Amino acid sequence: MSAGPSNHSALRHVLGHLLTPLLMCVGMGLAYLGAFHAPAPHDLRVDVVGSGPSAQILAQTLQDEGAGALDVRTVADRSTAVTSLREQGSFGAYVPGEKPELLVASGSSDTSAMAVEKVFTKVAAAQDAPLKVTDITPAASGDPTGQGIFFLLVALSIGAYASVAVIGGAGAALPMRIRALLAAAMSLVVSLIGTLFAGPVFHLVDRGLGGVWAMSWLYAAGILLVGVGLHTFLRRWTTLGVMVLFVMLNFTSSGGIYRPELQPGFFGALHAFWNGAGFVEGVRSHVHFDGHALGGHVLVLVLWFLAGAALVVAAEVVEGRKADAVSAGTGKETARISKRNERETKPAVEEEPEEEMEEAVGV
Q: Burial level of 3, CB count in 10 A (0-12/13-18/19+)?
């Protein structure tokens, strides 16, 4: 007789939990398709080498015809253009002449280099001249497309936020300090695995492996601490929350596939301060650009780490207050039961002398 209501309750429970994967589906579709479905350059910085009238006219023509796609400037000579590329101040430099040359830095972004090459191949074709392309900062031999760093980011992220689910679920009964130590330990393990992938296994980087490990650990630790701290507040919604933060918004704004100059403005804005962008751009800067602007990218990772630490501390305080409230409630309930027992037993104690007296009188 009770099977019907029990089944209905179980069905409602399952339907309630199915809301999470539906929201994940919608969120992933909006994030990935919104970020990647139609990449197009906007304000893509390129240089035209030369200071004469012809260089000025070419730069202005490209600026006008691009209608916002390009941000074109002129530089005095080739060495200035190379310096700008190595400092990630531009994504391509065109050297006009009888044998035109295009300078790119695919280590910054292979897709941006391809977009620049597409533009200036047409310019050279209009001059009926073959275009020579020179890559001044090529990616590592094991990462010809330059996107291996992005997939390293994916591996680190999955290892970190999957650990959050385990620590938050199976380890929920543990004190917060123990959970934080588990998070620190898992971030170390995840970062070491990622470093093995980046170096000895797939050769995604050919130098600076120690720095790659340090940024991997800082990145993974930030995710784990944020996730473990959030679990106290979000409970069963933690998985969805972590997915939004470190997959939907993180992967799409990291610049690992397309840099902000090829994406809608929303993802370009996130690129300035999101942790995935800090990791990808930090590794690029460290490995391909001699550490130029590395400090800013590391600062982003440090701030996310500190935010995670602050969340853990806040969660510990909240859990402590809840435990105190439960303890106080238990103490009050114990006192109430004790008083009730006293009231129930007191009349019986008082009746005993009366009974004894009655018995004595009767005798």
A: exposed
Tokens representing 347 are: 């009349």
**Which tens digits make up the pLDDT trace of 248-261?**
999 999 999 999 99
Q: Are 231 and 238 in contact (CB under 8 A)?
A: yes
Strands lying side by side in the sheet with 44-49? 70-75, 44-49, 93-95, 101-104, 132-135
Task: Cite the DSSP H helix spans in 110-262.
Answer: 110-126, 148-169, 176-196, 209-234, 238-243, 249-253
3-state secondary structure of 353: helix
How do residues 127-160 score in pLDDT, each as one tens digit? Answer: 888 999 999 999 888 998 889 999 999 999 999 9
Decide if 301 contacts 219 (C-beta within 8 A).
yes
pLDDT of 66 above 80: yes
State both tokens at 285.
């800067």
pLDDT tens per residue, range 214-250: 999 999 999 999 999 999 999 989 989 999 999 999 9
* Structure-token pair, residue 274: 């999101």
**Radius of gyration of the chain from Cα atoms?**
32
How open is the CA angle 249-251-256, to the nearest 5 degrees?
135
Task: Decide: 116 and 104 in contact? Cβ < 8 Å.
Answer: yes
Dist. CA 330–CA 15, nearest whole Å: 34
C-alpha to C-alpha distance for 301 and 24, rounded to whole angstroms: 25
Distance CA 86, CA 95 (A): 16
Of 83, 84, 90, the closest CA to residue 43 belongs to 90
Q: How much is the average pLDDT of 275-295?
A: 96
Report residue 92: phi and psi, to 5°.
-175, 150
